[in-house]
Structure formats: structure tokens, C-alpha cells
Amino acid sequence: MEINLSQPPSPGLSLPARLAKDVAIPVSSCYQCKKCTAGCPLTSAMDLFPDRVIRLASLGQTDMLLGCRTIWVCASCVTCSTRCPNGIDIAGVMDWLKEEAIRQGKAVEQPAVAAAHGFFLESLRRGGGRLSEVDLMRRFTFFKLRRQPDFKELWENAKLGLALFKRGRLRPTGPPALRCRHEIDRIFQKAGKKYYLPVFYFTELMGLAMGHSGAAGWLARHLVDPRPLLQKKGWLR
Asked: pTM score, two decimals?
């Protein structure tokens, strides 16, 4: 996107308010010390430096930010957030802008980066909080093959994957899910992604099987209420 800052933008208040409400990031606290930009390793590929992103966010320039290349170039290394003296989560602002651009159906400057972003989150959700590199690369590779086939790159990646598998560094089935998978589901639901698959602890199932009186109370605390399913199956009264 062509960024033109020759004319002063008309300030707006909606974007700073949404960032404060949705992700509790006070962009208006920025006093433009530019420490974020000084520490960013990817400014050479950006059309807006991180300090300008925060400045434009505090001025409510939503359209300009959602159409820029910077939010997709950002590697989420969190160097900017770490260096900020006012504790502004600049990398969090970049992530929020990515999600908002996708929600609004904006044209993306870096479609491969946008696809990788989505595949990463989906693989993380499906893996119960742990990333399956095999699932992520499989989906991203098919995405690239559909857009612009590069069989030489595919062959090189296949050889690398085989070498990693032989050394035990790659698990085709992915890592085991975390025990607190329901918390991962809670995070995704809070972000606006709804899932309806109940998750059980093994100890809860044991309590149900043994007729423990507190079982109904445990199940009431789940993110996805499993009691209707259990009642339908006749396993819970």
C-alpha cells in the first residue's frame, strides 16, 4: 500500500478505544521515543516503522494501518514491546491489526504471511496448545502449491523433513495436547472463535464412573458445557 503522510491525518478516537477495550493496550501512552523502531530487525522491509504504527493508532487511522505492509512483515519477536519504556505491547497491536484486517476482508500486502498466520493459530488450536510443525507445514505447502508451484523448494523441504524425522526431531502426529486444553479453547473463544467440542479430564470421567456426588459441579465449570451430551447418552442424570 502506498503510504502518504504529507497531509496531516484527521484524528479519530475509535481505534485507541477499541485497542484499550479488546486487548488492554494504551497506545496513547506512547511519547515517540522510537526505541521500538531502533530495536526492530525488520524495518528495512516495512512501509511504516513501529513507532509510526503506534502514532497512527493513537490518531485512529484504522484504514491506513489495516492496509500497510508492516503488520504482515512483523515477526512477533516482541523486541519492540520489551524495549518500550511505557510498557506498550507493540507486537500485540500488530497482531490485533492483522486479525482486524482479516475480519474486515482487507486486501493483504503479504498473502503468504497472512496464510501462515492463520495456519499457525489453527494448528495451535487443533494441537491443544502445542504446535504441530508437520500440520503447519503441510497446510502452508499446499497453500503455496496452489498459488505458485515451486517443486524444487518442495523437494528440498521434503528432504529436510525426512532428515529431521530420522533424527527424532519431527513427530508426524504432533506433540501431545496440554492438560489444560480447555484453557486454550477459552482463549480462542474469547478471541471470537467458537468451538463446541467438550473436553474432559480423565479424573472427571473416573468420578462419573464411580458415581461421585460432585461430578455435576466439576462439569459446570467447563468452557463447553458437556452435561447435555452426557445426559443424552444416559451417563449423567
From this structure: 0.63
Q: Which grid coordinates are listed for 130?
A: 502445542
- Indicate if the alpha-carbon torsion angle 52, 55, 59, 62 is positive or negative: positive
Helices (H) and strands (E) in the chain, counts: 14, 0
CATH 3.30.420.10 fits 14-103, yes or no: no
Contact yes or no for 65/19 (Cβ under 8 A):
no
pLDDT in tens, 70-122: 998 898 889 999 999 998 999 999 989 988 888 887 877 778 888 887 888 87
Task: Please give the Cα distance from 23 to 17 (Å, whole number).
Answer: 10
Q: Please give the C-alpha separations between residue 86 and each of 13, 72, 100, 178, 202, in angstroms, as whole numbers.
A: 20, 24, 24, 33, 44
Q: Quick check: 62 and 15 in contact, CB under 8 A?
A: yes
What's the CA gap between 162 and 168, in Å, rounded?
10
CA angle 84–129–132, rounded 5-degree value = 105
Distance from C-alpha of 139 to C-alpha of 69, rounded to nearest angstrom: 23
Residue 38 identity: A
Grid cell of 31 as nine digits = 511519547
Which three cell numbers mark 47? 512501509
- d(CA 216, CA 7) in angstroms, rounded, equals 62
Residue ranges of domains in the chain: 14-103, 111-166, 196-233
Give 217-225 contacts, CB < 8 A, sequence gap 24+. Answer: 222/182, 222/198, 223/182, 223/185, 223/186, 223/189, 223/199, 224/182, 224/185, 224/195, 224/196, 224/197, 224/198, 224/199, 225/198
